[in-house]
Automatic annotation (TrEMBL):
UniProt family annotation: Belongs to the glycosyl hydrolase 28 family.
Family matches, as SMART domains: PbH1
Record-given protein name: Glycosyl hydrolases family 28
Keyword NAD on entry: no
């Protein structure tokens, strides 16, 4: 496999409805060394989305992948002004590689609630090996440290 670096991706002013994933970055386990950097996702509305915000460095749809961690370095990722509804209680999933932590991840003004609910307390976020900051409104509460 000879994967190229990916940089400078912007997704703005979109509505995502009834999908499995909203805004996502994914890499395969055991992927060769490369970089994914300078991603911006902003002004996105989610309607009934299973994974509104997700970084998945353990992507393996058929569950028959190599066991070694992804070697893609993800950095400089911004999720800004993302709002709407999730149909999964874990609305923000930042699952980064054990050997290449995601760095400089920014969550800004995130407002997600469960589909068919007005409560904001029944929705969460989950982070693994993700480094960054959260500013402004954070619902669910950010897992970034």
């Amino acid at each position: 496999m000879n994967e190229e670096d990916v940089s400078g991706v912007s997704v703005r002013n979109c509505t995502v409805s009834g999908t499995t994933n909203g805004v996502r970055i994914k890499t395969w386990p055991g992927s060769p060394p490369s970089q994914a950097s300078n991603f911006t996702f902003e002004d996105i509305i989610m309607h009934n989305v299973s994974n509104p915000i997700i970084i998945d460095q353990h992507y393996c749809p058929d569950h028959q992948c190599v066991v070694s961690p992804s070697r893609v370095k993800i950095q400089n990722v911004t999720f800004r002004r993302i709002q709407g509804t999730s149909n999964d209680p874990v609305a923000v999933k930042l699952m980064c590689s054990e050997t290449m932590a995601c760095e400089n991840v920014h969550l800004q003004d995130i407002s997600l609630i469960m589909e068919n609910s007005t409560a904001t307390s029944n929705i969460t976020s989950s982070c693994s090996n993700a480094k960054g900051v959260a500013v402004g409104l954070q619902n669910p509460e950010s897992c970034l440290c």
